[in-house]
Amino acid sequence: xxxxxxxxxxxxxxxxxxxxxxxxxxxxxxxxxxxxxxxxxxxxxxxxxxxxxxxxxxxxxxxxxxxxxxxxxxxxxxxxxxxxxxxxxxxxxxxxxxxxxxxxxxxxxxxxxxxxxxxxxxxxxxxxxxxxxxxxxxxxxxxxxxxxxxxxxxxxxxxxxxxxxxxxxxxxxxxxxxxxxxxxxxxxxxxxxxxxxxxxxxxxxxxxxxxxxxxxxxxxxxxxxxxxxxxxxxxxxxxxxxxxxxxxxxxxxxxxxxxxxxxxxxxxxxxxxxxxxxxxxxxxxxxxxxxxxxxxxxxxxxxxxxxxxxxxxxxxxxxxxxxxxxxxxxxxxxxxxxxxxxxxxxxxxxxxxxxxxxxxxxxxxxxxxxxxx
Length: 373
Hints:
By secondary structure, the protein is an alpha+beta fold.
């Protein structure tokens, strides 16, 4: 069994006053592709290294296949790890690099040959087995590192920022390669990255971390559509969510000091009434703002336009706050133009100003008031 359970796992380095990882709880099912994502220093790589056995666990329990493995040697955990820097031996050929671990385990020569050739076929390395790492591209070296993990027949793959040294085009290619490999092998995979695009495109579930703590666990769709707090909402999405500070007056959200007004929908009014909230932050994603042809109560001026083919990002200021609108490219729109904005009321998020947590939404369905996440 390759299911993994982390129970209140913590890490505190000797001499440090603070925990690098705190109260980490996660159940990983067999064959899942879990991505740990967050800014630098959030504890994601430390968590991965604790699972691998490369870091001691300061508190809590790590279970693999139902067995506590806190004190089990890394080589006995049934884990293969792929590092950021490939960790290939420069004096060895591709074949020798991939075979190295098997030879150390005294695996018979004919079995080593069969396993390496099978992995090379899967990864498109068959014609490169006699080459040395210096003769390979970055993408080919990463394939060799993956091949070395595959030949071990491990039930769990751990990957620590494996694509960060590749250029943009190669990263896209290798993302697809790793996804295909996961589907083919069905290996439980835990993948660490600071790149939310990698997380969103690769994961079955994402674990978003900040300052050593889990902020949210969910599918890519869940963390995007229903962020738990302001941090998750700003971190997930490219670009991140726009936020507006203001006050509730009657059935309106007054942005800033009254420079703009957003009329609250009935469901938003019910939500605020339920939570008795007055001090809130309104969040809306760039693609959920429309540049309106008609005058609205929300007016801005174009500061900057970033064009990317069919889409463009329009930067504007509203009540002294910088916001971004994502829309189809419009060659007629210029810097300095006045624009009117409208928000998609079905995509508005309201956050408590003090806790920064999202207010759980209320939905009216067939006349019945329901609470959803």
